[in-house]
Amino acid sequence: MVKGFRQIAVFTVASRVLGFIRDMLFAYFLGAGALFDGWAIAFKIPNLARRIFGEGALSASFIPIYSEELHRRPETADKLASTVVSVLTVVLTGIVILGEAIIWGYYLYTKSNPETAMKLELAGIMLPHMLLICIVAILGGILNTHRHFAAPALSPMVLNIFIIASLTLGGWFFSIPAEKLVYITAVSVILAAITKLGMQFIPLHSRGIHIRPSWEVQNEQFKKIIMLMLPMMIGLTATQINTLADDFIALWFSGSPEKGE
Question: For residue 47, what are the domain limits?
């Protein structure tokens, strides 16, 4: 346990340092105008789901029940974890497809100013991050239950490393204009999420934990997870929507050359 605490502390501090470097690079390459505003809004949209499903309501309700099942009936714990991951994948895949349809439909069939168009494009690119990062969070919780802390604690570092690499390589080595660099950085977010997902499966496999497609939704433990999750999910959803609304309200009241006064 002490070793796990040490790993989490070291990787968290390293991630914060990298996050500081990332923010400095954002300020240097994208500035404090429309480009960074578009990035921040588009990146926040998929992260709302992470706070609800990945590290919020689902994780808080799933991990205690999974831990209990692991100690009482280890043979069924894998099936419970597989069912949760499978259901989460199907639900979030549906949300991502619906979200992409709304984003690109609005983009194609309405006349938007350049700032709005950029936000829609970036949101469309990064929306699959919603699915990937939530699965990573649930798998990380499973690993923590098995007393493996390194891979989950490394996840935030991976995202920062990919963003830093895309900004520095694109901006300094290839001299890509900021208007295009922001899209490359958006793609790097998806690549980072795929990398983080692979990082979780390696220690899972080494510990004999096999996550496979499963749909045992009639299982009593799964039903208990859903019942525990719903009240928390309602509260978290309201909070996250309000947070996003605050950003949009602030953005709408701000001026820019594209929007006019």
Answer: 2-253
Determine the residue type at 145: T
> How are the residues of the chain apportioned to helix, strand and coil, as percentages rounded to the nearest 5?
85, 0, 15
Low-confidence stretches of the chain (pLDDT < 70) are 1-5, 54-56, 236-238, 240, 244, 247-248, 251-252, 254-261
Q: C-alpha distances in angstroms, 243 versus 191, 225, 228, 246?
A: 26, 26, 24, 5
How many domains are contained in the chain? 1
Q: Give this prediction's pTM.
A: 0.86
- Model confidence over 206-239: pLDDT tens digits? 888 888 888 988 888 888 888 888 777 777 666 7
8 located within any domain: yes
Quick check: 54 and 137 in contact, CB under 8 A? Answer: yes
Distance, C-alpha 193 to centroid of its chain:
8
Is there a domain that residue 259 lies in?
Answer: no
User: Which of 52, 42, 15 has the alpha carbon at shortest distance from 187?
Assistant: 42
Is 94 a domain residue?
Answer: yes
Any domain includes 260: no
Cα distances (Å, whole numbers) of residue 224 to 41, 48, 79, 86, 213: 35, 24, 15, 17, 20
First-residue to last-residue Cα distance in the chain: 57
d(Cα 225, Cα 163) in Å, to the nearest integer? 35
Residues in the chain: 261
